[in-house]
Amino acid sequence: MKLLIIGAAGMIGRRLAETILKTGTLDGHRVDALAAFDVAPADLASTAQVAVTNLSGDISDRATVDSLVAHRPDVIFHLAAIVSGEAEADFDKGYAINMDGTRHLFEAIRAQGPDYHPRVVYTSSIAVFGAPFEEKITDTFLTAPMTSYGAQKMIGELLLNDYSRKGFFDGVGIRLPTIVVRPGKPNKAASGFFSGIIREPLAGLEAELPVEDDVRHWFASPDAAIGFLLHAATMDTAQLGTRRCLNMPGLSLTIAEVLDALREVAGDEALARVKRVPDETIREIVAGWPRDFAPDLALAAGFTADPDFPSIIRAHIRDSGHASG
Amino acid sequence: MKLLIIGAAGMIGRRLAETILKTGTLDGHRVDALAAFDVAPADLASTAQVAVTNLSGDISDRATVDSLVAHRPDVIFHLAAIVSGEAEADFDKGYAINMDGTRHLFEAIRAQGPDYHPRVVYTSSIAVFGAPFEEKITDTFLTAPMTSYGAQKMIGELLLNDYSRKGFFDGVGIRLPTIVVRPGKPNKAASGFFSGIIREPLAGLEAELPVEDDVRHWFASPDAAIGFLLHAATMDTAQLGTRRCLNMPGLSLTIAEVLDALREVAGDEALARVKRVPDETIREIVAGWPRDFAPDLALAAGFTADPDFPSIIRAHIRDSGHASG
What we know:
The structure is a homodimer. Chain A is α/β, with parallel strands linked by helices.
């Protein structure tokens, strides 16, 4: 089995690759080759079983994408994206990567002809939704993005559904909750502070909280995200019909509840490192984001959420311990 | 005031142009110039007041679209599209015109710079929805197209919302019901028979009915469509917020009810000219189309529907009488 991960140097992409390399299998099938693509090489090492090829380039260039698909991977994970904050700041770059790059991938697959029909796993986002919301967003609620990133992700979903319906490939789109706790440095996503207010205090550093304590949001851990991706790569898609993009299960908490969980796991000292520094730009972006979901279709299709928020924090402590040890 | 109609040679585009030329005004403003663009020239005549320019070309060519926008029309009506049946049969052509052409238009406007901010009226379609449906589709129901045409129209909506939100222009999208009675010859739209079963019997000809009598669908007249377009061109868009694409009001009838209206207006003789010729391809496409709506936002925004179906048939008789006399 041959796999391609587009966006393999990102936090989720790298973790996905490492998870697959650890077992050398996907859904019981032996993985022989993994192509790891990103704007800069992911520098992943081959294992005894899996030959890793590290590739880099720009998916807004069609020829680059054609070359990625030319070796006909059985499963393609498309995780590459310009994140929300940057797509809002650089309109052209957001559309070039998030919309054109995705379309190039789908066209490159189609250009291989009718005897090639890979599984394509596409990471979408809850940013496809925009306020005002249902109390809990259901599977038939309007997608009305309020950012360019959300619009671009939704266009990718429409293309994925249409190309799958036409039989060009077998697509599954997963709308990820906000992933916490992201390790490492902040990226340009407007959602970055949701990780920062956990990660920085645990590392003994101060973190800025730009929104009010009563802001409610929808979360999943990196482990849960990898679980979603692996399940999307191997599930039976017949059950999805023509609606192949699903709201992933997650946890809905207010900032106050997130901070309670931080105190439960790491004590008052950690909590005291969270500084309230209101930021009107971030506050406005976040106000347009969903708060809670009833992800019935995804649950019925076998996707599973984290058990609770303290376990998300403990998993981060475990992972960052590994990283520093 | 300068206007541009893209798709001016089509049934709705031509009727819109003729309506504007008749009064020489739009919302009380004097119209000085009307550019009428289509794949073939619309051949509209200037009036004493309005200078008409007939233009032709291909909107999938960016330079062509740039030249249309260069004279900075105050209002742009974008009605051009590859219809559903043709977009399903020719995947590349559908995306080139319906998706790329629309994006070219929006980019051409943006390229004019921040001192240009036209009203853009975009005709979308109820084909952005796909089964299974709510009993009556509300304004917050999921758009899940089941045709390439529907996907392309929905991508145009997402772009229109995002470009409007970013302040590049002031867009309004109107999701038209199926327009009946279309005059003239059938086009390649899978919905063509809805007009055919009225138009042909009234002209003394036989018409084929490819679906069952209990099929329910959502209709508006050409007059109602022109009303929607003129209202969308002149309404206050502040009330729409970031959701600028609306389900237009219409009438929901089964085929049996449509045929009852035909008999009411034109008698048993007309009804007898409707021949049941089941077509599995059309039946499947139509099964994925919406049947009924609760278009609350559009009604609140001042859009108005036809009073009843017999009045739609009588309007067609009046119009076709004008045409032949």
